[in-house]
Structures are given as C-alpha cells and as structure tokens.
From TrEMBL:
It comes from the Bacteria. Residues 12-134 form the SnoaL-like domain. It comes from Dactylosporangium maewongense. This is SnoaL-like domain-containing protein.
Length: 158
C-alpha cells in the first residue's frame, strides 16, 4: 500500500504533466487567437524560441514581437499539438510534441505545415513555462486554393 508521501509525489507528477500539456495548448491558443497576454504567459522572461536555422528569438520581448509579425503576415493561423511527452526532473522538464499548423496567406491561399518541437520547461512561482522551444523536422506544403477560412458556410450543390 502506498504511503501518503508516495501518493503526494505521484499527484505532484500528474499535476505537473497536466500543467505542461496545458502550456502546450496555451501556446497554440495564444498564437491562433492573437491573445498576447496568454502568449506571453507561456514563456520565461529569458526564453529562447528557435523557429528555424536562421531564426532565433531570445527574451520575451523578441518572442512577442516575432508572433506579432506572424499575425501581421497571416490573417488566420490554426495550430494543433499532438504526441506531447514530457520528462520531469524537479523544477525542470523536457518535452517533445508534434504540431500541425494551417496559415492563411494575405491572398487567402492556405499553407499546411508543422514539425516537431523540442522543449525545455522551468517551474517558477507556481507555474510551468517554456524556457526553450526549438522547431525540428519542419515541413510546409505548397499553398492550397483560396478559401474563406473558419466560419465559412459552404452550400452543398443539389
């Protein structure tokens, strides 16, 4: 039979895993819904976001400016995170997840893309945050034909 201390450690681990999964979702929701407070809340103040071999953003201000630039470029973005696994070691953790993203170009064409994120997380002041996120195995597909995007009502031909 498990002791109270063992159960408490297991509960802490479950809570940490749930918080880290929520963090991954808040990253996507913040980006997709242009919610800067939510977006900023997922990062440590000195975080590093590597989106490509020649695109590294260091610090919260640079990371927020980078997503703002994406918002200015893409009228609509939609991220989906899957296969999120984490390894927790006290107040630090590492993780890996896959992401699929659809972005609309200014001419209303769409690009499907994504990749895998390798993450480092830190626990501070009662919250988990992303300290380092690196995109590995990125992919983009050729632009798709124009479409109105989410909320579009398509009539079904008779």
């Amino acid at each position: 039979m498990a002791t109270i201390e063992e159960l408490a450690r297991r509960l802490e681990r479950v809570e940490a895993e749930l918080a880290l999964r929520r963090l991954a979702h808040d990253y996507c929701i913040g980006a997709d819904h242009r919610d800067m407070p939510r977006w900023a809340s997922v990062w440590t103040a000195d975080a590093v976001w590597e989106t490509g071999p020649d695109r590294t953003f260091i610090g919260l201000d640079a990371i927020c400016a980078a997503v703002q630039s994406q918002w200015n470029t893409f009228p609509i973005m939609q991220h989906a995170t899957a296969n999120h696994v984490v390894t927790i070691d006290g107040g630090s953790a590492t993780g890996r997840c896959d992401v699929v993203v659809l972005v609309q170009l200014p001419d209303r064409r769409w690009i499907a893309g994504g990749g895998t994120y390798d993450d480092e997380y830190h626990y501070d002041d009662g919250l988990w945050r992303i300290a380092h996120r690196r995109v590995v195995r990125p992919f983009d597909l050729a632009p798709l034909p124009p479409a109105e995007g989410p909320g579009e009502v398509n009539e079904i031909p008779d």
